[in-house]
Amino acid sequence: MKTIAIVSTAGGAGRTMLAASLAVLLARRGREVVALDFDPQNILGSWLGLDTLASDGIAQALIDVSHVWHAHTWRNDEGVLFVPHGQLTLAEAAACSARLAANPQWLAGAISEIGLADTGVVLIDTPRYPSPQADHAARAADLVLCVCPPEPAACATFVAHLPALRESCADVRLVVNRLNPAREMQRDVLAMLRVAAGGTPVAQRIHLDAAMPESLARGGWLFDEAPHSQASHDLHGLAQHVDAWLPAHTARAPS
Q1: What is the C-alpha to C-alpha distance for residues 91 and 33, in angstroms, rounded to an integer?
Q2: Would residue 251 count as lying in a domain?
Q3: Could you tell me the residue range of the domain that residue 174 belongs to?
Q4: 20 and 107 in contact (C-beta within 8 Å)?
Q5: PANTHER family annotated for this entry (predicted)?
Q6: Is the pLDDT of residue 115 over 60?
Q7: Distance from CA of residue 45 to its chain's centroid?
Q8: For a tag on the chain, would you pick the N or C end, based on fewer CB atoms within 10 A?
Q9: Contact 71, 158 (CB under 8 A)
């Protein structure tokens, strides 16, 4: 079993969309997939098919050691096992942060309780890095995918936090999201990023597609509704990149 953390150093980078899309595409390739929501926004389930925000989840185990978070998992129609974060009050959120600060290996221990085959994968959605949750996810991960829009501020924060991310996880790769080649500034930013990131591998570039939020609103996936779009091709490319990184398995035919 491998663990992948999806992080970003800028808000609105699209990490939750990518976490959900990657979970579904890997499941369609025959992988056992667990999608773990470790973001207090608690919205990953909305992408995976839940109609309401999950009230209970893994965060409650940080507050109450007797809480059995495994009882609140849910499997969607694609076969992805979803672990919700759960709803928290402000006081509970502060208590969770304190617990995480006191036990840097808490999430790694929780993930070790998930019984997947060697070829399975746990995908962790996180809040913006740095944060206690994102730090735990990076430390627990075998691979960190850092999602970065090709904007000056987002790239600057990525470069600033890259040393800390590499200290937490030896394998950090970049996913450039919402790329619009028509914008000259973005091409310039990407060129500077390649230099400043010091050889950080680029897992995939994903192009901007205005149909993405519309697909979510309809409860569908862009790669099903617009399979020939550039963004759909890019998402499949990211899934291929991760699938090749994971231990070899015999993939089932797509449904």
Answers
A1: 32
A2: no
A3: 2-6+11-245
A4: no
A5: COBYRINIC ACID AC-DIAMIDE SYNTHASE, P-LOOP CONTAINING NUCLEOSIDE TRIPHOSPHATE HYDROLASE
A6: yes
A7: 12
A8: C
A9: no
Whether residue 230 lies inside any domain: the answer is: yes
Q: The domain that contains 78 carries what CATH number? A: 3.40.50.300
Indicate whether 54 pLDDT > 80: yes
What CA–CA distance (Å, rounded) separates 123 from 105? 17
Sheet with strand 33-37: strands edge to edge: 74-75, 81-83, 33-37, 121-125, 2-7, 143-148, 172-179, 202-207
pLDDT number for residue 238:
97
Q: Provide the token pair at 219.
A: 């409860």
Longest dimension (CA), the chain: 54
Cβ(55)–Cβ(102) under 8 Å? Answer: no
Spatial CB neighbours of 61, under 8 Å, sequence gap ≥ 6:
67, 68, 69, 110
Question: Measured between alpha carbons, how far is 15 from 11 in angstroms, rounded to an integer?
Answer: 9
The number of distinct structural domains making up the chain is 1
pTM listed for this prediction? 0.94
Residue 137 has pLDDT above 90, yes or no: yes
Q: 148-164: buried (b, 16+ CB within 10 Å) or exposed (e) per residue?
A: bbbbeebbbbbbebbee
Tokens encoding 179: 């790329």
Rounded Cα distance, 152 and 191, in Å:
11
Mean pLDDT of 210-231: 85
